[in-house]
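Input.
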Amino acid sequence: MIDLHGRNINKLRISLTEVCNMACTYCVSSLSDHQRLPDELKAEQMLSLVRMLKEHAGIEKVRLTGGEPLLYPNLIPIVSGIREMGIKSIGMTTNGQLLARKAKALVDAGLKNVNLSLDSLDPEISKGWVVLENFIKLLKVLRRV
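Output.
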């Protein structure tokens, strides 16, 4: 798809869920703001949308975001379904707190790249040592995958 400025629009960003496991001050005031919405699309609906946009608009790249996409219950089938459509560039933006648990399954499903949202390596800024410790654990897992 070409926009009015002649640019090829071939990327799709899908916010899978509003649910998140953090309460970053620039996003929400508390974790209670992150509730699963009753009208959140089901995996089949999202895959149908991606398929339609691939076929009719030339989408070649998909980025999965949220909230926190790792909290979306059908994340692995979504990634696998997108890959099975022939889309080779599948990425995800995450805070990384839960990535270690799902990294291998996501790679096996077809995930090609990950953007980590990390405010700072300074524990005062990044909400304490737990975030930093989890990030260090995550780096170790990613080296193995």
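The mean pLDDT is 84.
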